[in-house]
Amino acid sequence: MSTANPITFFDLASTVGPFSPLTWRTRYVLNYKNIPYRTEWVGFADVETVLVSNGVPPTSATKPKYTVPAIIDRKDGQGTAIVADSPLIADYLESTYPANTIYPDGSRDLQHKHVGVITANVLRPIVPMVMAITATVFEGRDQDAFVTSRTQIFGQPLADIYAPEKRDALLAALYEGLDALSAYIDENRLREGEWLFGGDRPAYADFALGAAFEWFTKVGPEGAWDKIKGRNERKWERIYEACQRYSEAQ
Predict the structure, then answer these.
(1) Looking at the structure, do residues 76 and 133 belong to the same domain, yes or no?
(2) Is 1 domain-assigned?
(3) What's the CA gap between 158 and 130, in Å, rounded?
(4) Does a structural domain hold residue 200?
(5) Confidence of residue 160 (pLDDT cuts 50, 70, 90)
(6) Are 33 and 99 in contact (CB under 8 A)?
(7) Could you report the per-residue pLDDT of 129-139, keeping only the tens digit for each?
(8) CA torsion 86→88→150→139, rounded to 10°?
(9) What does the pLDDT read at residue 79?
(10) In this structure, is residue 2 part of a structural domain?
(11) Neighbours of 234 (CB within 10 A)
(12) Are residues 145 and 45 in contact, defined by beta-carbon separation less than 8 angstroms?
C-alpha cells in the first residue's frame, strides 16, 4: 500500500452515504491509522458479483456468502492481501500497520470480547428497529434484492418486524441493552479518558460502538436517536461525536 496504490475498500452504495455498522468499523480504523485507501461503492444487488470478480473470499457457507466490508491491499513489492469480514480486517490492519494501535496494551482479545457485548446489547436490539427503513436507502434492483434477502432471513415482511404495536417494546429492549452496556463499561474501564474502551485514545470497541450509532442515526426511526443519546451519562452521544473525527469517506 502507498499513496499511489491505496487500499481498495468495498462498501455499500446508498442514497444516504455509508451506513453499514460493519463497514463503518473498517472506515474508522483506516482513517485513525491514516492508511491511504479509496472506497469502491457497490450496489447491494452486485455485492457477490463484484467481490467474486476481485477474488474476495466468502464470509459464510450460507447465503449471503459474500458481504462487505472487504479490502484489497496491493502492497508494494510484497504481493496482494485480500481480506473480508470486519474483525479479520481489523486484525490485518493492526498487524500490517501497527501505528495508532486499535488494541492498546495488546488488548486484542479483550477488544473483541467488548465488541461481542456491544453486539448483544446494542446491535441486536437495533436491528428490528431499522430493517424496514434500511430498505429505503436503496433504489431499484438494489432495494428489491435487499428486501428479498432480508425477508427470507427474518421470515416475515420487513414492515411487520417494526409494526406499530411492537415499537414500545422494541425501544424498551434497546434501553435495557444500553443500561446493561453502560454498567459493563463502568465495571471494565481500564483507564480514564474520552473513549469508553480506550481511555485517552480510541480502541476497536469504541469504533464498533460508534459504527452502530452511525447506522442508527442514518436509518433509525424518526426521533429515536434523540431518545437514547442522552442516556447513561450521555455516553452514547459522546462516543458518537468522538468518532466523527475519523468519519471522512475517501
Answers:
(1) no
(2) no
(3) 9
(4) yes
(5) very high
(6) yes
(7) 999 999 999 99
(8) 50
(9) 84
(10) no
(11) 11
(12) yes
Residue identified by cell 421470515 is: 155
The model scores a pTM over 0.85: yes
From 61, 87, 56, 60, select the one nearest 71 (Cα to Cα).
56
- Domain residues for the domain of 35 are 7-102
- CA 78, chain centre distance (Å): 29
Residues 195 and 242: beta-carbon distance below 8 Å:
yes
pLDDT digit string (tens) for 199-240?
A: 999 999 999 999 999 999 999 999 999 999 999 999 999 999
A 10 A CB-CB count for 99 gives 9
Q: What value does the mean pLDDT take over residues 187-194?
A: 79
Domain identity same for 116 and 46: no
Angstrom distance (rounded) from CA 149 to CA 155: 10
CB-CB contact of 243 with 207 (8 Å):
yes
Q: Look up the CATH number of the domain holding residue 31.
A: 3.40.30.10
